[in-house]
Design goal:
The structure holds two protein chains of two kinds.
Chain A (H helix, E strand, L loop, with lengths): L17 H8 L6 E3 L24 E8 L2 E8 L10 H19 L5 E5 L10 H18 L5 E5 L8 H8 L2 E4 L10 H8 L9 H8 L1 H6 L5 E2 L4 H14 L10 H9 L9 H9 L5
Parallel strand pairs in A: 3-4, 4-5, 5-6, 6-7
Antiparallel strand pairs in A: 1-2, 2-3
Helix pairs in contact in A: 2-3, 3-4
Chain B lengths: L12 H11 L9 E2 L4 H8 L5 E4 L8 H7 L10 E7 L3 H8 L3 E8 L4 H9 L4 E5 L2 H8 L7 E10 L4 E2 L7 H9 L4 E10 L17 E4 L19 H18 L3 E4 L3 H16 L9 E3 L7 H5 L5 E3 L8 H5 L17 H11 L2 E4 L3 E3 L4 E2 L12 H4 L11 H5 L13 E5 L11 E2 L3 H8 L16 E3 L4 E3 L6 H10 L5 H4 L3 H9 L3 E2 L21 H7 L14
Parallel strand pairs in B: 1-9, 2-3, 2-6, 3-4, 4-5, 6-8, 8-9, 10-11, 10-13, 11-12, 13-16, 14-17, 16-18
Antiparallel strand pairs in B: 6-7, 14-15, 18-19, 19-20
Helix pairs in contact in B: 8-9
Classes of the chains: A alpha/beta, B alpha/beta.
Amino acid sequence: MTDQTDARLIPSFVEQSARQRVEGMLDPGSMRELLSPFDRMTSPWLEQQGVVPQFDDGVVVAKGTLNAHPVVVAAIEGSFQGGSLGEVAGAKIAGILELALEACQLGTPTAAILVLESGGVRLQEANLGLAAIAEIQSAIVALRQHQPVIGLITGPVGCFGGMSITAGLCSYLLMTREGRLGLNGPLVIEQEAGVGEYDSRDRPFIWSLTGGEQRYATGLVDAFMGQSLSQVRAAVLDCLQQGVPEQFRSDTIEASLATLGQVDTEHQIDATRARAILTQEQPS
Amino acid sequence: MQATAQPKVNWHSRRQDKHRRMAALNDLARGSVIPTADIKAALERLLHPGDKVVMEGNNQKQADFLSRSLAGVDPQKINNLHMIMPSVGRPEHLDLFEKGIARKLDFSFSGPQSLRIGQLMEDGLLEVGAIHTYIELYARLFVDLNPRVALLAGFKADRAGNIYTGASTEDTPALVEATAFRDGIVIFQVNEIVDDVTDLPRVDIPASWVDYIVQADQPFFIEPLFTRDPRLITPVHVLMGMMAIRGIYERHQVQSLNHGIGFNTAAIELLLPTYGESLGLKGKICRHWTLNPHPTLIPAIESGWVESVHCFGTELGMEDYIAARPDVFFTGKDGSLRSNRAFCQLAGQYAVDMFIGSTLQVDGDGNSSTVTRGRLAGFGGAPNMGHDPGGRRHASPAWLDMKQDDSLLGKGRKLVVQMVETFQDSNKPTLVEELDALAMARDYKMPLAPVMIYARDVTHVLTEEGIAYLYKAQSLEQRRAMIAAVAGVTPLGLQQDPQETARLRAAGLVAYPEDLGIRRSDASRDLLAARSISDLQDWSGGLYQPPAKFRSW
């Protein structure tokens, strides 16, 4: 390319692969990938079910530094099996978090960055996937006492199922406008509630309820970022500098439950009403 | 001969007939305006059984209120109509035949209704006059298919009947011309009727060509058909795009062109500002375009590649962007796009260096077709642009580059490029022994097989394996070997003789990526100037407003 200065040609963070995201996040030259594709740690279950496995099982984990601060990064590759987590993929994330915890305990404060691009548990590995996600969650709860655990949801897949609960445990959660966060994915809700209530093909409607802008406005995430690598990196650095928060979002569960209790299910909820309820700005 | 025995000839029968029909509407219409609720009664009075009726159904402007109303008339009163339709896209278009209101159909393209047309033919309810290309159908309107009535769509009208078509002018001028000046009756549905001509953004069709206007019960249907989401462009598309730019656009200095609507050509559009730029080709290729305003063309326009674009129709979401780039697009004094399918098809046929597009099947000789068995999809415009027009006389570097000798009596050729992956999504080979179109012709006893582009017009076949420079073939046998050499592991490709393929590559008749200096591993999505709809919107400075179905935010 002759015109190196044209910023419009640089891929946004959203369009990058998991490995590109990890590499871009870390200080140049500092990335050390663990269990890389050359280690061929693949899922033992997929092939038996006629699914072609991937040598990294769809998760990239690495150690490195961010502005010279030691960090571990785990990024889920949304284009492999919808970012679903099975035995190996889940263990890689839990393992890297546990390494960070060990490092903290041994005197090297090490933060964690999780790039969450996941439909949740990998159905082909059901129980093992569930167990792995539980391990990830315990590791986050242990590590966040020492160092920030920063979750990113940038899209295009979004973060659903068990991983949306995981996202709620992070010290900080950051989203872009293309990111979505929800317990059930749109197709599942449509199947359960009916297309009249939740049309999964009505994209502006889906994003108005679960998209990054709405999640930020309703206080469920801590920052609403731009989509370029530099903007994402700056938002992460900001959290790193803030350090361990005084209170975790998951500690305020009683207040959140009380708010949910006020929801009047007689009426179809929309984005505006959801904001009003969650921010308690006007009683409804 | 007795001089006094001259029979008295009525030279005014068509005009008198028109006036009689219109007189029947005196108590219904207020001037030119037919009240919305009275449209069915009006159609029943204006139409006679057996009339030739042209109905506007385009890609992006449907006279759907009029077609729904026509499908509701009493078949006892109105029947056996002969419908002439560029595009048969809506279910009610075929309800007309099921109910007996219409009987005969001349058309160009049927898309989503293709299966039902075949069924209605088998049931004996629909008789096809002929399946045309677009220009061919417009041309016949002026010869033996003069319409008695034209049912058309516009965006706005004033009370006198001046019409603003909106950015999708599409077929309207051609259909009106053939009707208005042959004593036919011209009826427009519009979304809105304003009081005065000064309330219209501009006049696309003057009131003196129009007999009636009616306000539709809801705005006409429009769908974004030409938007390709860059997220769905694969590394294989990128590789093929690089080969096209290197091995065809650059080699033959293609300056004016039409692109099909597939992901392959969308990839090329997105590679111009990156890969094309790195080859130093800006200003040397791809300067003038005839195509719909593809959103994937935005990065090339914004980085200065594109001097002009003339459009068949518009594309939803592109309105503000086009209006802000009048140096590139054809626009009216009001600033909005003026499209025109007939002129754009002519431009694509006669004035461009190259047509490049995808297809569903290519046979060993290079004939191609988009027909799949049982579906009568029609031709649309691809055959107009995808052939070498014998009437062309002006030279351009690319056109002359196809000339095989220095004879002053020889001519150049238009480049007609078929760009296909060797397999379709469903693992069906694209390169086949025999086109499904032949079985179709036998099934329906058609006089000729529905071939989209004939082998003799195709100059290049480009697959992910390589490029076959068919215009250089010395014999039919050599031509078949060239196609087999790029047919990969399809049954056709497995027949290739490796030694013959090596000879063809050495002679420059076939080029693989490495022959063009392209490393397959370089073909990555990172080369695309935009990788998502969101990127396209950013390139447009926020002017492009993607329709809801393409948004992911």
